[in-house]
Design brief:
The structure is a single chain. It is built from four helices and eight strands; from the N terminus they run ααβββββααβββ. By secondary structure, it is of the alpha+beta class. The protein has one domain: Roll (3-methyladenine DNA Glycosylase, Chain A). Strands 1, 2, 3, 4, 5, 6, 7 and 8 form an eight-stranded antiparallel beta sheet that branches. Strand 1 and strand 2 form a beta hairpin. It is globular and about 40 Å long. The two termini are 29 Å apart. The mean pLDDT is 93. Belongs to the DNA glycosylase MPG family. Its EC number is 3.2.2.-.
Length: 203
């Protein structure tokens, strides 16, 4: 993966990450997942971003440098993985929402449950991390030069397959079209509008 690609605003990087591959090596084994759905979150101008109110101990990784992994706990239940983008010192990251397991399916299934259908193994940001094996210990991991979690290029994705739409489950700036996904792919998560969502000035 080219660092120059990641050193751009999140909304420009997010569609370009479709088809890329995240690999996680743990003592249990290796899982590789091709990305099929992403969401862009910028910094202090994005009300839905963790960095909207500035830098904190929790969101510090979001402020750069690009090419690192920002991991946070969602609703106290699930880990979520974000690829840090943009310039050092400016918060910007792309949430990985869903993917297709291309290696280590047995291990991913063991983490997710025997009854989970194959397309659902990494559908949704929490499920993606669970299947991949990403936890808090991977926060700040160098995706380009590290070894535990690695981001690499995958098969090229035809531009005609890439669609954009509103973000899922956020109450602020939900109607910004910063969600990108592969049209018709069964691994892509279902769109859900937050019951607290209100129209914003930008879409």
């Amino acid at each position: 993966m080219n660092i120059d690609l990641l050193a751009q605003p999140a909304e420009e990087v997010a569609p370009k990450l479709l088809g890329s591959v995240l690999t996680c090596q743990t003592p249990e084994g290796t899982v590789r997942i091709a990305v099929t759905e992403t969401e862009a979150y910028s910094g202090t101008d994005d009300p839905a971003s963790h960095a909207y109110r500035g830098r904190t101990a929790r969101n510090a990784v979001m402020f750069g440098p690009a090419g690192h992994l920002y991991v946070y706990r969602s609703h106290g239940l699930h880990w979520c993985a974000n690829v840090v983008t943009g310039t050092d010192g400016t918060a910007s990251a792309v949430l990985i929402r869903a993917g297709r397991v291309i290696e280590g399916e047995d291990l991913a299934r063991g983490r997710r449950g025997d009854r989970v259908e194959t397309p659902r193994l990494a559908r949704g940001p929490g499920n993606f991390c669970q299947a991949l094996g990403v936890t808090a210990e991977h926060n700040g991991a160098d995706l380009l030069r590290g070894t535990s979690v690695v981001l690499s290029e995958g098969e090229p994705v035809p531009a005609a397959l890439i669609q954009a739409g509103p973000r899922v489950g956020v109450s602020k700036a939900h109607d910004w079209h910063h969600r990108f996904y592969l049209a018709g792919d069964p691994t892509v998560s279902a769109y859900r509008l937050s019951p607290r969502a209100k129209p914003s000035a930008r879409a």
